[in-house]
Amino acid sequence: MTDLTKHSLYKPLEVDSMLSAIFNIYLKKFLIMFVYSFVAVFMVQVIIYYLGFWDLYTVSDPDEMVRNFPEIFKKIGVISVSSVIIYGFLNAFLINFLIKSDLEPGINTGDLLAESFRKYSIHMIFFLILSAIILIAGIFIGLIAVIVGSLVAMAYLGTVMMSGGAVIVAEEKNAIETIGRIFSLTHKDFWSALGVVVLFVLIMLLISLVLSAIIAIPVVIMFFGNLNDSGILEALNLKMYDLGIWVVILNSIVSALTYPLYAILSVVLYFKLKYSEDHNRVSLQ
């Protein structure tokens, strides 16, 4: 197993230094992470586009929706399975890249890609499925205590699950072993982990708002074009699916810009918790 103590993130980290580390790593390794993320997200977006999923937004008749429900359910199933497989592989590669490129500078990216597919992708895919089931179950149980309970469950389970991808790669565990490991690991310093996850989510919401405003620019341009050609009523009917294949490209770019940040958070949080666990063990001896 790789000596994790030699990683640059294996050190004491507070909430502010963790957030700083996340964005420093993002800027330093941006190009490789963006390119691979774009390719993966583009594949998912192409599947969605060519299955005609955007066309569902044009259906307004409830009876037609009911008649098309078996076909809609089939499309959702294909999209869900494809997304889990592609994102599982992408997550395995990004986390493997973040860990190994720090420990072995100059390591070949192609070798990391092959290793990620061979050793970690299947475990990552099953982990994504299991964590989604646990998160949904926790939120459902939290609904018993109305909104507050579901928010608490989401915050708790989201914090626990966040380091799971890094555990699979760093400690070479399977999906089931990872579930048990992340609970014990996160509880070593839960409140600090919760703090950084909450702040990270708030920052990502702000970034998403900015990117949403940017991606809306083509829609605004088309709106004014339609306004001149067809009048105000027709212009107001403009939807994102009117952009055709461009919506695939725009969504892929936006997702590729933000997705690597979650992989970085998983790695940073893992090393913060791992360092705390190791040094707490030493202090108890």
Task: Describe what you observe in this structure.
With 285 residues, the protein is mainly α. It has one domain (4-120, 190-284). The protein contains 12 helices and no strands. It has helices at 15-28, 30-50, 62-67, 69-103, 109-142, 146-161, 164-170, 175-186, 190-215, 217-230, 232-236, 245-284. Helix 2 crosses helix 12 (245-284) and helix 4 (69-103) crosses helix 7 (164-170). The chain is globular and about 65 Å long. Mean pLDDT is 83; it is low at 230-238.
How would you briefly describe this protein structure?
Helix content is 81%, strand content 0%. The protein is an all-alpha fold and 285 residues long. The chain has one domain.
Describe the biggest sheet? none
Order of helices and strands: HHHHHHHHHHHH
Overall shape: globular
Annotation field: number of helices: 12
- Low-confidence segments, given as residue ranges, are 230-238
Structural class of the helices, strands and pairings? mainly alpha
